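# step 3/5: fold
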Amino acid sequence: MDLKAFYSPLLKWWWLIILSAILAAGSSYIIVRNQPLVFNTSTTLIIGRTIYDPNPSTNEINLDQQLGNLYTNYASAEPVKNSVMKALGLTWLPQYSVRPMANTQFIQIIVTDSDPVRALRVNNELAIQLIKLSPGGSQADGNGQQSFINSQLVQTQKNIIETTNQITQKQNDLGSLSSAHEIAQTQQEIQALQSRLALLQTNYANLLNNTQNGATNTLSVLEPATLPVVPVGPGKPVIILLATLISLALAIGTSFLIEFLDDTVKSPEEVEQLLGTPILGYVNKVSKKELNQGPFVLTKPNSIMAEAYRMLRTSMMAGKWQKLNKVIMITSPEAGDGKTTVAVNLAASFALEEKVILVDGDFRHPEVHQVLGIENKVGLVEVLSGKIDLRDALLQWESSNLFILTAGHQINVPDEFFQPARIRKLLSELEGMANIVIFDSPPFFISETMMLTPYMDGMLVVIKPEHTRRKIAKVMMERIKLARGTIIGVVMNSIPVGLAGYASYYKPYSPFYYSKYSNLNGHKKEKVGLLK
């Protein structure tokens, strides 16, 4: 597995990833820096008295749990809220929640607020109001009913104690009696007292069930709220860090998604695998202004660009092309790949030692004359139509061995000019006048490129990384095979920063090893004249 496929999107989109992290960190800091701290406080209430019963029944426990759900909903009702606000003199309440604790008779009240004191007051008052509004609370004591029941409980308890003491006394007196009549009478009194005691105990139990201490549907505080001193939730640094990490993850994911959706060729290895042909040269990316200043090998011979084209020329001469004839076509899969720049500079590189004719074969969008800064009054169109002789249409670049045949008059449908007899005649004349003929053809999706292909000795394909699409490159290869064209190799043009190492390795050596061309440094461009 190629690890480069994993880290190359990160290297390409590093600026997006870093920018996203900076923006996320900055924006999160601005958002959280003015946010107040948040405090939580809680109160635990208990329902009923089953927790204090040594032998509680399952029904009582289940009933308490069901009542917990009812009180949870009741705590959010308007009567409770209004009672709390009225008691505290507030017009609003901070965020609070009331929830039953699972499988227990407990209810928990949680209040969240930026003011810890206010959170404590609201929590305590919520508990008070819930207890008051419960059936066993003070508000449930309609017309003093609970007070009456409590007084009856006290009296009944007193009577139970007195009756118990009387029974004990009678039982003690029974042992000292000798008369049968007195014994029988005492036993009858004991039975009457015991009956009275049982009735009193029944009344006491009934009264107790109607009080808060004996009722099932009651609320009481089990654990009161305390003043919170430590804020809750993640701290501001943690929030900023999380926002930054999330942004980094999203940016990294976006970079991989962009690369996945991008159908362009990116690396030399991908080009060789896609086209099945070697890469003969690598050309760095330069500005458009530099491209229109003439051939680098003539105007800036000690530059990296000049060395790149000399290396391309050397690669071509070292390969199988040297065994072919001398007519070569420069083409590309798409417009904008930079084939014209490659054609001009490659022709100038060969012109250092041999006589070269550069032909602009792009009738629809000619650009050779723009790169070289020459006129395009007459050219290939006029030669093929017989209006002018080939020798009279050629222009010489200064005093070099480079001669140019521009496209001439621009036309949109040039098929009539690409007749086999005309092409053979033109190529025969060109081969007789120069050692090497280079055709700058249109991209391969244009019909005249396929018409020229069978007459070419070789083809050099220009690929622009991150511009040339894979599907278009595959279609080009199919059409080249269909036209029986011969591909010499590929030129990687306008290499971006990520691939610049392929062409910049010779930068330190150019001032030392190419001094023989120094007489051409900074020379003035002379007027291009007709070939004599």
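# step 4/5: annotate
Residues 39-137 form a domain with the Alpha-Beta Plaits fold (CATH 3.30.70.1130).
# step 5/5: archive (pending)
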